[in-house]
Design a protein that fits this description.
alpha+beta; four-stranded mixed beta sheet; globular; binds flavin-adenine dinucleotide; binds 5-carbamimidamido-2-oxopentanoic acid; Amino_oxidase; Monoamine oxidase; Flavin_monoamine_oxidase; L-amino-acid oxidase activity
Length: about 500
Amino acid sequence: AVTPAFRPPERSDFTLTGRPGASVVILGGGIAGLTAAYELGKAGYRCTILEARHRVGGRNLTIRGGDVETDLDGRTQRAGFSDGVYFNAGPGRIAQWMVTMDYCRELGVPVEVFTNQNADAWIYNESAGMTEPVRYRTAKADVYGYVSELLAKATDQGALDAQLTAEDRTRLLAFLQSFGAIGGRTNGWAYTGTSRRGFAAYPGAGNDVGSPLGAPPALSDVFASNVGRYFSFEFGYDQAMLMFQPVGGMDQIPRALAKAVGTHRIRLDAEVTGVTDRGGAVEVTYRQGSRQAQLTADYCVATLPPHLMARVPHNLGTAVTAALADFPVTAAGKIGLEYRSRWWETDQRIYGGITETDLDLSHIWYPSHGFHGKRGLVVGYYNTGANARAYSGLTPEQRRERAVAQGVKIHGDKYRSELVTSYSHAWDRTRYIEGAWTSPRYGTAGYNLLLQPAGRVYFAGDWLSHEVAWQHGAFVAARSAVSSLHQRVMAG
Ligand SMILES: Cc1cc2nc3c(=O)[nH]c(=O)nc-3n(C[C@H](O)[C@H](O)[C@H](O)COP(=O)(O)OP(=O)(O)OC[C@H]3O[C@@H](n4cnc5c(N)ncnc54)[C@H](O)[C@@H]3O)c2cc1C
Ligand SMILES: N=C(N)NCCCC(=O)C(=O)O
């Protein structure tokens, strides 16, 4: 066969066979820690999770009205969202092939489509001189049209004869005519714009042909606007539609995991302060409020972000510390803007999806659920790196003002006037996380060292996978760690 058969991801009815009943202390109650406890629990291990924050989930964080978060700079926000409104401050979407979907199925977490791409969402490149946003459908029609025109001309003029047979040329020209909606040879393969660009007023009854947007800008202006830079996003194997989200918020996943694990096995507000491998057991010290406590178990699974684990005193060796400290960390931030009306649906006909910009807010997300409801939440920025750090240095009020001032350029006055309340999350300033995700140095001795246990301590987290910045990575890394732990226990 030319194409290898599709291999479904490891199934979620992943089960360790044999019931050895050893004890395991798990550091961190994010997706990796909860998954380790869930899978080990199925096999009869006695697990305890130590989680420093006041809730499980880690980076999987959904904010609802009444939630209170204080960042490393001491800025406290109390989310004022209405009942039923939620904001996924961390993960927001899941690809169909990800093992995350299997866990949703197994745990009974209902999912719905997350609209990752929408022909009616906007593109706005201020630095390219755009004074008005353009709809995705219009931008695509023009870029595909002109690229097709150029390639058709070059092909027909013989510029590609060294690469193409006569049959290839005919087939390529036929493809380009349909792909770009361009004229034929007699029209010089010209792109002159079609209904694909969209309408100022859509067609109606009788003789109402509507008001088509008409002729495209000149080829040079279309390329100068640089709208084409966003088209490849939806080609990514990890971002292509259909994408999914849990109904009611991404934290339905950690909530379901915590319930399955048993909340009595999870200690919250428990900050791990030391890990000592005693040879026959692992001793973990932690702080709960003013109380210092200690826990001894047969094994340990450590799922703290690597740059934080590197700072926890331990006796696992300097090579382990150096390897943990060698994960470059990215910043990311998001703001949730609650509106009293769904003007993006009623006035702009945008039902979900993402507007792309070259502003420092980067992306604007419209909700993929609750269509035609009373109110809704727009993600007013989702940015990374320097843009994220620029926002995380501001107060929550300043962040909102900066995001709204820019959003108005794209959406008009309602972007400000209909706003009710907001909450912003800066991952680089979040205690016990201090970053969004890492860039592992795959293939180095340090990375490979952490794939092995350090004595009785196993490591897991999305940072020990090739799907960093995805819950999938945390799930599979946890499964990998508990599988090798279990093999060792069964062999011993
Ligand atoms: C902005 C953003 C967007 C994302 N988008 C997506 C997406 O759309 N889809 C997707 O699938 N994934 C997405 N991700 C990635 C996803 O959130 C992560 O891959 C996943 O949640 C990582 O889980 P983890 O358990 O490895 O780590 P974490 O969630 O970081 O868990 C580590 C845990 O350790 C705890 N901890 C830290 N220090 C201590 C200590 N001293 N003692 C005890 N506990 C401690 C932390 O509080 C935390 O709960 C996104 C992440 C971010 C930040
Ligand atoms: N550099 C990356 N791995 N990007 C992924 C960004 C985080 C994510 O999963 C999402 O937003 O969907």
